[in-house]
Specification:
The complex is a heterodimer of chains A (555) and B (191). Chain A has 555 residues and is α+β, with helices and mostly antiparallel strands. The chains are: A alpha+beta (555), B alpha+beta (191). Chain B: This is DUF3726 domain-containing protein.
Chain lengths: 555, 191
C-alpha cells in the first residue's frame, strides 16, 4: 500500500519552496463553488471621475448571502507608490462588506479604508486591502485603448497584471470581523475564501477602471480591452516577510493543507490503471502547463536556475509520456517514482500536483479537511508524560539534535518585530542588538533546548511538573502535542540559519492559495500573480470555473 | 473603541511577553483575555491589572490558572481551594479550559458570588470577586444558565493603552545597523 510521503521528505524548506498549485488550491475552490452555486454579480456603483478618483461598489450574491467590494480610487503621485507594508498611500483601497452597504456605510468606509492600517473598520467588513498600478503596464494599456488599439501582447505577457495588491487583511485585523464569526458559512469554510473573493472582485473592478481611464483619455475613439487579453491578466501581489511566520504560528492549519494534498497524491499513486480519458486529461493539461511555465519570468538568480531545471524537467517528462508510461500498470506511481529519480524538486512537485487533475472525485472532497476548526479548543494536556513529550519532539525534531546550535552560522538570524516598522523582520543576531526581542520562530532550536532540559526528568512524570519549573519551554511542548495528530505541522529545517530563504515559506503558502509565476525579488519577498486566466463574472460557468489556471495552448 | 477578539488576543499575548512572561505563558494570556471578552467581561482590564501588579506566582491568576488547567486531568479539580488570588476573574478562562478537558462544568465560589463554566459559556452569580480573593473550585452538578456571548470587545481605553505599553517592549529599537542590513529591503515600484 502506498502511504502518504513522510514529513521528513515533504517538510523541508527546499521542497516547500517548490510547491505548485493544485485542484485543492483556495482560488480554484472559490471559483468552482461560485460557478456551481450560480452566484450572481452586479456593479452597483461606479462613481469615478475623469482624474480617476471616486468609489465603486461591486456585489456578488450566493445561495444565502451577498458580499460587496467597496472600492476607493485615488490620484496617487508616482513618487508615493510603494509596495512596502509601511506605505501610507495607494492607487486603490478596498473593503469587503458583509451584505449590501448603505450610504452611511460608504461614508464611514470612505473615512477609514483609504488610510488602511491607520483607519478602523468594523464587524460588517470581512477584509481590508489595497492595490497599486503596475507602472509599466498601466499607462501603456490606457494609451493603447484610448487610441482604439489593443495593448501589445508581449508587454501583457511580460507583466501579467494591471494592479498588484500589497496586503489583503482579514481575520479581525484593524477591527474587521473575526474569522470565527463567519467560518461556519459554507462559502467561507475553506481558508482565505473571503480574502480571495476580495481579490477576485478587485480584478473585475480593475478592468472597469482601466477602460474608464481610456474613455476619459480617448473619448469616442477608445475601445474596451479585448476579452482574451483581459482574461490573461491577473492581479499581482507582493508578499514580504510578514507572511512567513504565519506557517509557523498556525501549525495545525499548515498540517491540514499539506496533509490534504499528500493524501490526494497517495490516493492517485495507488490507482492500478489509468483510463484513456484520465491519460488524455493529464496529457492535455501537461501541454497547457508548458505554456504557463514558458510565460513564467524571474530575474532572481535562484529562481532563474529553478526555472531552467523545471523547463528541462518538462522536456524529460514529455519524452517519458511519449514512451507510454501512463499505459502501464500503476501508471501514476511509476511516473512519480521516475520523477523522484530524474526531476528537480520543482519538477517533482509539478508532476504531483498535475497527477491530481484527472481525479476530482478522489481529490476535491479533501478540501473540507483544510480548515482548522479546533484551533482555539486546543489546551495543553499537562497529564502527558515526559517520555511522551520527548517522543513527540524526537519525531519532528530528532534531526535537529545533529545541528550545532552554538555555531554562529546555524543561528545567524533572528526573527523580530522592529519598533520602527511594526512588521516582522529577519535580522543578523551577531551584528544587531535584536536577540532580546526574538520571536519564537525557531521551533527546531527550541525543541533541542527542551529535549536537553527534559533529559534529567523522570520519564513517567507529567509534563505539567516540568512546565512549572521550565515555563520557557511551554510553547515548545504545545507544538510537540500538535505533532501527535498533525505529522506535517512542523517545518523540518533550520529557520534561523545563515542560509535560510524566507521566500521558501512564502512560496509554500502562496501555492496553496493557487498563485502562479512566483518571482522572488530577494531572499525575503516575492511577486506572484492571482487569477490570471480566470473567467470574469460574466463568463463564470461550471465549464470555465476550474482549469483556468492552465492557459490554453496556441492552436 | 470596538476591537475584534483577534486583536484582543494578539495585544494580550504581546503585552504579556513584554511584561516578562515566557512565550508559552503569553499565548495562554492571549487566549484567556479573548475568552473573557467573549463572555462580555473586560479581559483587557483584568490582564492589565495583573501585568501592572506583577504578583508572585502563588497569587498570580495567570500562573495559577495555567497550573490548574495543566493539572486538570492529573488531580481532579473538585474541592480545590486557592488563597488570595490576585485578579481572580483571569482564573475563569482557565477553569473553563480545565472543564473542557475533563468534560464536566466547574464552579468557582468566592465571598458573595460564584461562577459556573463549561469552557464555552460562563454564568456569574452575585457580586464580582474582590481584586484579591480566596476561591473554591468544584465540579458543578446540574445545569446552569449560560450568559450572553460577544464577538467584539470594548475594553477600558486606559487598560488597552497599558497593554500597548507592555507590548511595545517586545519591539526592537531601530538602529542604524538594522536599517543598513534592512530586513525590509527596498521594494521598489519599478514595475
Amino acid at each position: 500500500m502506498i502511504e502518504r510521503r513522510p514529513a521528513r521528505q515533504v517538510m523541508r524548506l527546499k521542497r516547500l519552496g517548490s510547491l505548485h498549485q493544485c485542484r485543492l488550491s483556495f482560488m480554484r475552490q472559490l471559483t468552482r463553488r461560485m460557478a456551481s452555486e450560480n452566484w450572481t454579480f452586479e456593479r452597483m456603483v461606479f462613481d469615478i471621475d475623469a482624474a480617476g478618483v471616486g468609489h465603486a461598489v461591486y456585489a456578488t450574491t450566493g445561495p444565502d448571502r451577498s458580499y460587496s467590494l467597496v472600492a476607493f480610487a485615488h490620484d496617487l503621485p508616482d513618487d508615493m507608490r510603494s509596495d512596502r507594508v509601511i506605505a501610507t498611500a495607494w492607487d486603490t483601497t478596498f473593503a469587503l462588506f458583509d451584505g449590501t452597504p448603505t450610504a452611511d456605510d460608504i461614508e464611514r468606509l470612505s473615512k477609514n479604508v483609504p488610510f488602511q492600517e491607520a483607519g478602523r473598520i468594523s464587524e460588517s467588513e470581512l477584509t481590508l486591502s489595497r492595490a497599486n498600478r503596475s507602472m509599466r503596464l498601466w499607462s501603456h494599456v490606457v494609451s493603447a485603448l484610448a487610441s482604439g488599439q489593443q495593448p501589445d501582447p508581449a508587454q501583457i505577457e511580460a507583466v501579467g497584471y494591471l494592479m498588484r495588491t500589497t496586503a489583503v487583511y482579514g481575520s479581525g485585523k484593524f477591527g474587521a470581523a473575526d474569522r470565527a464569526t463567519y467560518a461556519k458559512r459554507p462559502e467561507f469554510q475553506s481558508p482565505f475564501q473571503a480574502e480571495l473573493l476580495t481579490v477576485y472582485l478587485i480584478r473585475w473592478f480593475v478592468r472597469d477602471l482601466i477602460e474608464h481611464m481610456a474613455r476619459v483619455q480617448g473619448g469616442a475613439s477608445a475601445v474596451p480591452l479585448a476579452p482574451a487579453i483581459a482574461r490573461q491578466l491577473g492581479i499581482g501581489n507582493s508578499t514580504g516577510l510578514g507572511m512567513a511566520p504565519f506557517l509557523i504560528n498556525h501549525p495545525v492549519l499548515f498540517n491540514n493543507w499539506i496533509m490534504a494534498r499528500e493524501e490526494a497524491i497517495a490516493r492517485v499513486r495507488r490507482i492500478p490503471e489509468a483510463s484513456p480519458l484520465e491519460v488524455s486529461t493529464f496529457e492535455a493539461l501537461f501541454v497547457r502547463t508548458k505554456v504557463s511555465v514558458a510565460r513564467w519570468r524571474s530575474e532572481h538568480p535562484i529562481q532563474i536556475e529553478k526555472l531552467a531545471d523545471l523547463r528541462r524537467d518538462l522536456g524529460k517528462l514529455e519524452a517519458r509520456l511519449a514512451n507510454g508510461v501512463l499505459n502501464q500498470k500503476d501508471p501514476w506511481n511509476s511516473l512519480y517514482r521516475w520523477g523522484e529519480g530524474n526531476l528537480s524538486e520543482e519538477g517533482q512537485e509539478l508532476v504531483a500536483s498535475l497527477m491530481l487533475e484527472a481525479y476530482p472525485e478522489l481529490t476535491d472532497g479533501l478540501a473540507s479537511c483544510m480548515t482548522d476548526a479546533r484551533e482555539d479548543a486546543l489546551a495543553l494536556d499537562g497529564s502527558a508524560s515526559v517520555a511522551q513529550t520527548r517522543g513527540q519532539l524526537e519525531t519532528a525534531f530528532g534531526w535537529a539534535k545533529e545541528v550545532d546550535w552554538h555555531e554562529q552560522t546555524n543561528c545567524a538570524r533572528a526573527w523580530y518585530v522592529s519598533e520602527e516598522k511594526l512588521e516582522p523582520r529577519l535580522g543578523e543576531r551577531f551584528q544587531e542588538p535584536i536577540a532580546d526581542y526574538e520571536q519564537p520562530l525557531a521551533p527546531a532550536r527550541d525543541a533541542v533546548a527542551a529535549l536537553k532540559d527534559l533529559e534529567n526528568w523522570n520519564p513517567d512524570a507529567p509534563i505539567a511538573e516540568f512546565l512549572e519549573t521550565h515555563p520557557e519551554h511551554r510553547h515548545t511542548v504545545r507544538r510537540a502535542q500538535v505533532v501527535e495528530f498533525a505529522p506535517y505541522s512542523e517545518i523540518q529545517d533550520n529557520t534561523i540559519s545563515s542560509e535560510v530563504m524566507p521566500i521558501d515559506m512564502l512560496r509554500a503558502k502562496l501555492s496553496f492559495f493557487g498563485a502562479t509565476h512566483f518571482d522572488p525579488r530577494s531572499d525575503r519577498w516575492v511577486r506572484i500573480c492571482m487569477y490570471a486566466g480566470a473567467p470574469y463574472p460574466e463568463d463564470l460557468t461550471p465549464e470555465t470555473s476550474d482549469l483556468w489556471v492552465y492557459p490554453e495552448a496556441a492552436p | 473603541m470596538s476591537f475584534s477578539l483577534n486583536e484582543v488576543e494578539a495585544q494580550a499575548k504581546k503585552a504579556t511577553r513584554g511584561a516578562g512572561y515566557s512565550w508559552g505563558m503569553a499565548e495562554e494570556a492571549g487566549r484567556a483575555t479573548a475568552w473573557l471578552c467573549a463572555q462580555g467581561r473586560d479581559g483587557v482590564a483584568v490582564l492589565a491589572a495583573v501585568l501592572d501588579a506583577a504578583p508572585d506566582a502563588d497569587h498570580c491568576s495567570l500562573a495559577q490558572g495555567t497550573r490548574l488547567c495543566d493539572r486538570a486531568k492529573i488531580a481532579p479539580s473538585q474541592n480545590r481551594v486557592l488563597h488570595r488570588v490576585f485578579q481572580p476573574l483571569l482564573l475563569l478562562p482557565f477553569v473553563g479550559f480545565a472543564s473542557r478537558q475533563i468534560g464536566q462544568p466547574l464552579s468557582i465560589t468566592w465571598e458573595g458570588g460564584s461562577a459556573v463554566t463549561d469552557g464555552a459559556s460562563l454564568c456569574i452569580l452575585g457580586r464580582d470577586p474582590d481584586a484579591q480573593a480566596d476561591l473554591a473550585i468544584a465540579i458543578h452538578a446540574g445545569t446552569f444558565t449560560a450568559g450572553t456571548k460577544f464577538t467584539r470587545a470594548t475594553p477600558d481605553s486606559s487598560a488597552w493603552d497599558m497593554l500597548s505599553q507592555f507590548a511595545h517592549r517586545t519591539y526592537a529599537p531601530a538602529t542604524e545597523e538594522s536599517r543598513r542590513l534592512g530586513a525590509g529591503d527596498s521594494q521598489s515600484n519599478a514595475l
